[in-house]
Amino acid sequence: MYVKSVNLINFRNYENIKIDLSPKLNLFLGNNAQGKTNLLESIYIAAIGKSYRVTKDRDLINFKKEKAYIGVEAETSRGTRFVEFKFQRDAKKIVRINKLELNRLSELSGNINVVIFAPEDLNLVKSGPSERRAFLDTEISQIRPRYRYNLAKYSKIIFQRNKLLKSRGRINADQLEPWDIQLADVGSDIILDRMGFIEKLSCISRDIHKKITDGKESLDIEYRSSFPIDKSSKQEIEKSYYGCLCSSRAKDMEKGNTEYGPHKDDIDIELNGVSCRTFGSQGQQRTSALSLKLAEVELIKEEVGDYPILLLDDVLSELDSDRRKYLISTFEKVQTIITSTDDVNLLDNESKRIFRIEDGSIFR
Fold first, then answer.
1. Is the dihedral of CA 119, 121, 124, 128 positive or negative?
2. How far apart (Å, rounded) are the C-alpha atoms in residues 131 and 152?
3. Where do the coiled-coil regions begin and end (predicted)?
């Protein structure tokens, strides 16, 4: 899988650009605040359906304009995928694949797969649970299109249950019953997908981590549920979650919030049997984050049959020589799109293309 071309109109600081990319290595050089990250963001949006930097679509539109456009053409093992996004300040965005408009954003999942590695991802281990849940949700949505649909459904149910809980004295516990049944049903699907993903990711990342550390460290990842789970079947998880919701109704009514469920879960990352977040050095935490990101690449290939596109946002300068060397060894397998302020002199790769970005213009 690789991106053939990117067309941007009034997207961020790009007025109107179209570039053709190498199927292998692409290096975008430029000073800060010139548009390097904006370019990666546009490819990410075409794959995932949303930005990893902002939550409001209108923030993607050039502040002097009313509309913006992203067009990304990619070649995959299932054929050409031409993904288009049209944004308007006061209207719903339009998304098309091969000229066909999508009814749901979840239909976008899996058409183009990406793994992004930015400096903030190096803090994945020591960041909060919400960042690690977002990491899970983004990656699972790429290989399980139904997962994104379940997430959206779960969020709506949680919103309604919490709205009811905030009524406090005006409700009784029995009114929560229909919401609890729905939460247990959808929530158990989400947890089951997460547990399966973590199990596979843990195996792959453990092998990668051993190679990076010359076998000195053993990396383990486990899913940590906010309520006890004894079995890993859909029925058992649903039963456990429903029981937890019922028993916590009084507490939830008191707090006005749903205290248990996949929206509260986390992952444990351990090195040699101890918490990497608590006891790991900054170098160990960064190596663990790198192992997880590279494991994503291999897991997506295993699940969908295509290697994803690797997006590196000015991250090479954040890695020491050993980690950088291992990351570079991945480039031969996948299309890699790199941004940097310096010519990092990465590879003697004959198919690499070097671009320079200056104030929203791209030159070769």
1. positive
2. 17
3. none
DSSP string, 106-155: GGGTTSS-EEEE-GGGGGTTTS-HHHHHHHHHHHHHHH-HHHHHHHHHHH
- Tally of CB atoms within 10 A around 258: 23
Nearest to 105 by CA among 163, 41, 152: 152
Order the strands of the 2-11 sheet from edge to edge: 14-20, 2-11, 67-76, 79-88, 91-97, 100-101
Annotated binding residue at 123?
A: no
Say if residue 341 carries a ligand binding annotation. Answer: no
Fold adopted by 122-305: Glutathione S-transferase Yfyf (Class Pi); Chain A, domain 2 (1.20.1050)
Report the C-alpha gap between 162 and 305 in whole angstroms. 40
Question: Between β-strands 25-29 and 353-358, what pairing exists: parallel, antiparallel or unpaired?
Answer: parallel
- Rounded Cα–Cα distance for residues 309 and 46 (Å): 12
User: Domain segments of the chain: what residues?
Assistant: 1-113+307-364, 122-305
Q: Rounded distance, CA 196 to CA 223, Å?
A: 9
Splitting the chain (364 residues) into consecutive groups of 10 residues, what average pLDDT does each group show? 98 96 94 93 96 93 95 96 96 96 92 92 89 94 92 97 87 91 98 96 96 94 92 91 95 94 96 94 91 95 94 87 85 92 65 89 92
33 carries a ligand binding annotation:
yes
Q: Are 338 and 352 in contact (CB under 8 A)?
A: no
32 is in an annotated binding site: yes
DSSP string, 217-261: --EEEEEE-SS-----SHHHHHHHHHHHHHHTHHHHHHHTS--SS
Q: How far is CA 321 from CA 115, 328, 332, 335, 351, in A?
A: 21, 10, 18, 22, 23
Sheet holding 219-224, edge to edge: 219-224, 266-271, 274-275
Tell whether residue 256 is among the known ligand binding residues.
no
DSSP state of 295: H
Q: Which of 270, 48, 19, 238 is nearest to 141 (CA)?
A: 48
Tokens standing for 141? 């949505």
DSSP state of 213: T
CATH number for region 1-113+307-364: 3.40.50.300
For the whole model, what pTM was predicted?
0.91
